[in-house]
Amino acid sequence: MTLILSLDDVKSVLAMGPCIDAVEEAFRQYSLGNVVQPTRPTIKIAAHRALINAMPAYIGGVEALGVKWVGGYLGNPALGLPVVQAIIILNDGTNMSPLAVMNGTYITAVRTGAAAGVATRYLVRADAATAGIIGAGVQAKTQLEAVCAVRPITSARVYDVFPEAAAKFAVEMSARLGITVTAAATAEEAVRGADVICTASTSKTPVVLGEWLKPGAHINGIGSHSTDARELDTACVVRSRVIVDTIDAAMAEAGDILMPIAEGAITADHIAGELGDVITGKIPGRSSETEITLFKSQGLAIQDVATAQLVYKAAVAQGIGIQVNL
Fold this sequence. Notes:
Layout: E1 2-5, H1 7-13, H2 16-31, E2 35-36, E3 42-45, E4 50-59, E5 64-73, E6 84-92, E7 98-103, H3 105-123, E8 130-134, H4 138-150, E9 155-159, H5 163-177, E10 180-183, H6 187-191, E11 196-199, E12 218-221, H7 234-239, E13 240-244, H8 247-253, H9 255-263, E14 271-274, H10 275-279, E15 292-296, H11 301-318, E16 322-324
Helix pairs in contact: 2-3, 2-11, 3-4, 3-11
């Protein structure tokens, strides 16, 4: 039997705290060499300004196996649809049986926030209290939620090119998280003085400048994930100790890293290492209270598969979803 889980089913069982722990374990298994994760193929559909990816992975140690089929189209909000839509097939890692088919759209948002939560847990100063958020969409919400789950954040400032979106975000997240969230008039206002900065925009040009960063700040760079897009200027990258989800993904897709390399401002050796290696202690994270750190995320299939396994187990335990014989 295969369990079918709708968007509402997934939302009812998926919480940020357990997701952060599941994603951390996935990164740990990756560092230990227990992951099989092929490079994701991308189909670009120029006629519709859209793309779609297949993201398969196997995580040994926890026997999680699955694939996410995820597409993105910037015109979707006008159609009443999310920009990103996804479906995940979860298999039994020992015998390949299809355990579940589930909505992957919400999982994508939460697991991306969770990765930033893991990075924040290992790279951000323990006393971090302020956050700066660039972007006010769904992903920005899970970024702030994840940061607040692992650090004692008391206030946040959010900037969006649409002021009404930032204002709405501030009201909603203040109530949800029990902290003071205010809308900033500019990106600089959101970033200056912040202990943790999360960029979750769709901008292809820098929205955060290195000169705005205070000593000891940390950046979670989330929004850009192609060679022709960057949210961070070269100074941000030059000033930072750079940790990535995987070096292969960063060198193939991360415009935030590849553009400074093309400019001659840094070399590939400027990347200090991968998040999983920080978790397992193979490399250090933050070296001092004044060091600026950057986690550049491209998004990995292991995050989706680990989260899907978490959702599946919770749904089975709670009797949620529809069992079908495929």
